[in-house]
Structure formats: structure tokens, C-alpha cells
Specification:
Elements: H1 2-5, E1 12-14, E2 21-23, E3 26-28, E4 34-37, E5 42-46, E6 49-52, E7 57-58, E8 66-67, E9 73-74, E10 82-83, E11 90-92, E12 95-97, E13 103-104
Parallel strand pairs: 1-4, 4-7, 10-13
Antiparallel strand pairs: 2-3, 5-6, 8-9, 11-12
């Protein structure tokens, strides 16, 4: 999870097209935001994270039902629960988490 959030603007861009680049295996847009998709089905997994077939992170809303390797929070559909904003109540490896276990992308 820490490599997911290192060195980006804190923004998430929800779309269905292919991302512009990959940094440390994480899809990004040209504006440095993380490329996510909240609707398209999960196409594959890489390093324990779900991706769509075109390579965007498959994210979704909570509730968080499980945690993967690196404390990555997942919902019941297996999508990464990553919010663009929120109030952190806990930190792990410099990543903020809400009281509900949602990871913060800012």
C-alpha cells in the first residue's frame, strides 16, 4: 500500500480508459493522479491489488470487509477501498485510514 500512495498528487481519476503510465506498478494519469475505475469488473490481480482489464485499479466503496497484504482494505466484491478525501483516525506505514478502515489517497 505504501508504494501505491508515494509520490502522487493525492487525486484519484475515475475513468474506464487505459491509464497514461505506471509508476511502481501503479496506474497513473498524466496529471499524476492514480487511475481508478469504480464500475468495470476486475480483470486481473497484480501484487495482491485488483485491476480492470485495461489496467486501472479496481476501487469501490466500503464497507471494508477484509485487509490484504500491506494492509490494503477490500470490500466484499474484492475492490480496493481507497478514498480521495477523508479524516484519518489511524496511520500505518504513513498511510491514513478512516475509522472504518478505508485508505486515504491524500
Amino acid at each position: 500500500m505504501s508504494s501505491l500512495l508515494q509520490g502522487h498528487t493525492g487525486a484519484l481519476t475515475d475513468a474506464v480508459d487505459a491509464p497514461d503510465a505506471y509508476w511502481n506498478g501503479i496506474p497513473h494519469e498524466a496529471d499524476d493522479s492514480i487511475a481508478v475505475d469504480v464500475t468495470t469488473a476486475i480483470g486481473f490481480h497484480h501484487a495482491g491489488l485488483p485491476y480492470t482489464a485495461v489496467g486501472r485499479l479496481a476501487t469501490g466503496a466500503g464497507p471494508v470487509t477484509s485487509f490484504g497484504s500491506g494492509a490494503a482494505p477490500f470490500n466484499a466484491a474484492g475492490r480496493l477501498v481507497l478514498l480521495a478525501a477523508g479524516v484519518p483516525t489511524d496511520f500505518l506505514a504513513a498511510i491514513g485510514y478512516t475509522a472504518l478502515g478505508e485508505a486515504l489517497g491524500v
